[in-house]
Amino acid sequence: MPIVISGTNGISGVDGTASNPSYEGTDANTGVFFPAADTVAIGTNGTEALRVNSSQNVGVGVTPSAWGSNYKVLSANTRGLTFAGGVDSGAITVNAYYDTVWRFAGTSSFKSARYDFYDGAHYWFSGNSGTAGNAITFAQVMQVDGGKSLALEGATSQTGTGITFPATQSASSNANTLDDYEEGTWTPTLTSTGATFTYSAATGGQYVKVGSWVVLHGVITLTNRTGGTTGNALFFSNLPFAPGNDDFGGAGTGIIFSSITGGVTLPANQSMWNAVVRSGTSVLPYYSPTNGVGINRVFQYGDISTTAQFQFSLTYRTT
Q1: Residue 282, exposed/middle/buried by CB under 10 A (0-12, 13-18, 19+)?
Q2: pLDDT digits (tens, 9 = 90+) for 248-304
Q3: How far is CA 41 from CA 11, 21, 23, 31, 64, in A?
Q4: CB 62 within 8 A of CB 78
Q5: What residues contact 115, with CB distance under 8 A and at least 6 apart?
Q6: Number of helical H runs and strand E runs in the chain
Q7: Residue 272: its pLDDT value, please?
Q8: Local structure of 302: helix, strand or coil
Q9: pLDDT digits (tens, 9 = 90+) for 135-175
Q10: How many CA atoms lie within 13 A of 33 on its CB side?
Q11: Which end of the chain has the smaller Cβ count within 10 Å, N or C?
Q12: Is residue 183 within 8 Å of residue 214, measured between CB atoms?
């Protein structure tokens, strides 16, 4: 191939290869060559070391993947690290590139990964493993934004400093791992075999869940009750989370304390009431004997009027 030397175009006409570059010094297998149209590369020791393609993307030891036109990238190795700059955004990836969808840069049994940053927010993603060119399924594992919370496992950062857990708990089997926190409202109800209860708008409550423990407050205000039998047990129901397994000796998973009751007829020698939360059941309240006289007795349908009111707090363990 002839070499053309021109005062306008310089030296041209020889593309060269990594082992026999177009421009070289005293080392014959190290220099600059042109492996494709609109592409320039540098070879060292007869091996391609760096390539800049027609999209101005750079590959170190690798041909850059076909990223979308909005990105300029620097890639190292086929399944290695890539720095990508978009319009007002950036990304750092491992074995991943974007060309309308995220794809594997190479075939590997190791999972892909991605870190994005945009408009002050930072996002971390974990992907699956797969075959070069196939689409990747990424799952967001963490998000951080200025002035907002640290969000885990797909949750969205919220205003203020803190940690936001996903709406659906991703439970950990490790005893030293906090895997959930939630605040919310709930609507307590009463149940008794054959009975129907009607409630006023003053029925409701709030809860806080930390790990597997729930602390809640509830208010139940009746406007009517029908259909029940006097001696049937009366339960507090509709807990926001199912009770867990009973503790040692079948003692349940928690205990309830009342603060105010109205429209309740106390049995003889009974005063304060509490309850044990048992696995797979609603809360079954008990009366406590006064001054050690008598024994505990469960709440019964016949103990309450049609306008009974309960206010209570409860701590119990979930599944």
Answers
A1: buried
A2: 555 556 666 665 677 887 777 666 666 667 666 677 776 666 655 566 778 889 989
A3: 16, 9, 11, 9, 12
A4: yes
A5: 91, 92, 93, 122, 123, 124, 125
A6: 0, 28
A7: 61
A8: helix
A9: 999 999 999 988 888 898 888 888 888 889 888 888 888 87
A10: 21
A11: N
A12: no
pLDDT at 243 over 70: yes
End-to-end CA distance of the chain: 77
Residue with tokens 């409860």: 314
Tokens (6 digits) for 314 = 């409860």
Question: Which residue in this structure is represented by tokens 């990424």?
Answer: 138
Q: Which residues pair with 95 in a beta bridge?
A: none
Q: DSSP characters for 198-242?
A: EE-TT-EEEEEEETTEEEEEEEEEEEEEES--TTSB-EEE--SS-
The Cβ-side half-sphere exposure at 222, using a 13 Å CA radius, reads 22
CB 144 within 8 A of CB 163: no
Q: What is the mean pLDDT of residues 194-222?
A: 94
Other Cβ atoms closer than 10 A to 64: 22
Q: Give yes or no for residue 112 having a pLDDT over 80.
A: yes
For CA atoms 150, 155, 159, 162, the dihedral sign is negative
Q: What is the DSSP string of 107-153?
A: -BSSPPEEEEEETTEEEEEE---B-TTSBP--EEEEEEETTB-EEET
Scan for tokens 């990747």, then name that residue.
Answer: 136
- 196's tokens: 């129907």
